[in-house]
Amino acid sequence: MKAILLAGGKGTRLRPLTIHTPKPIVPIFDRPFLQHQLDLLKRVPEIDGAILSLNYQPRRIEEIFGDGSSTALSLHYVVEPAPLGTAGAVRYAAQSLHESVVVFNGDVLTDVDLAAVIALHRERNAKATIVLTPVENPSAYGLVETDAQANIRRFLEKPTADEITCNTINAGIYVLEPDTFDRIPADTPSSIERSFFPSLIERCETFVAYVSRGYWIDIGTPEKYMQVHRDMMDGRYRAAPFGESASPAVISPLARLEEGVCIEGPCFVDEGTIVKSGARIGAYSVIGRQCHIEEHASVERAIVWAGTRISQEAVVRGSILGRHCHIGRNATLEDGVVLGDKSVVSDYSRL
Ligand code: GDD
Ligand code: MG
Prior knowledge:
Layout: E1 2-6, E2 27-28, E3 31-32, H1 33-42, E4 49-54, H2 58-65, E5 74-79, H3 85-93, E6 101-105, E7 108-110, H4 114-123, E8 128-134, E9 142-146, E10 152-157, E11 168-176, H5 192-202, E12 207-211, E13 216-218, H6 222-233, E14 249-251, E15 256-257, E16 262-263, E17 267-269, E18 274-275, E19 280-281, E20 285-287, E21 292-293, E22 298-300, E23 303-304, E24 309-310, E25 315-317, E26 320-321, E27 326-327, E28 332-333, E29 338-339, E30 344-345
Parallel strand pairs: 1-4, 1-6, 4-5, 8-12, 14-17, 15-18, 16-19, 17-20, 18-21, 19-22, 20-23, 21-24, 22-25, 23-26, 24-27, 25-28, 26-29, 27-30
Antiparallel strand pairs: 2-3, 6-11, 7-13, 8-11, 9-10
Helix pairs in contact: 3-5
Magnesium ion binds next to loops.
């Protein structure tokens, strides 16, 4: 059985981080996001390969995962000539598939029991099975109404406040039957959420829901991208590098911490990073590879990508800094700052 990972979006809500790093490979601590999805797929013995459906900066993604030999799943890449939307992308990627296929939005992290979802799909002999998850505010997602037998009765993408009738949303994980894909228009963009799913309901196809109440997040905004790190540090989602760690502070043995450095867990410091004397790495900080945190600088609740320098006495709180940024001396970055790669903040600036 194959899985299709929809990983072709531009990641606009994560800009400027996604200008040079497509959303599927933004780092989560020390590994690209998609690695977590591949790990979830690997837990299902029946799934032997994944097709990555790409459009935006496809080579960057291919370079990282190659043929999948490092992930023990055979990986194939399909690059659309132009964005085909979520339905068009599935049709385009599934051209050679004739058996049930698992489809994943390339930006959701979850511990759903995928084998159980596939089992339900078969038991119900469904044309489509989708995973639902309860959220507080469905307006940013696809709202899904079901009946008492878990049949899907209504699918409403990005509902307005007065259209919200329940709290279950589309978690972005499906099992689909390829014999329905000829209904998706070929070569023109179309949406699985706005066209294909509503069409299944109109045609009274067997379209069922699997409600998952475990961990689920869409990492597609800076707030959620920060939250996923926090959740992993707090043990709400267990995965490397925090999965097995007994210590709340995960510091690479290849990082160099000078004497007089203050470290407050939970936090993460990756290899090659140098933290100078008197600097403080506060709780919920994530420092990527080869960073320099200079004397008396303070980092707290911030995510700092590889190669960034935070100069003496600078303060960075609740912010995300891209690769190879330079934060000048005594600069202060307060909650909500998001800097793209190679940003330069001059000495004493306040953001
Ligand atoms: N290949 C390809 N081509 N992939 C695409 C395209 C495309 O044209 N457009 C979007 N994608 C990929 C994105 O990269 C992402 O992984 C996934 O499809 C979903 O797109 P998003 O842009 O992240 O959608 P969303 O988060 O607003 O809403 C979707 O996900 C929610 C759950 O997170 C919908 O499926 C909602 O119904 C759902 O609740
Ligand atoms: Mg999304």
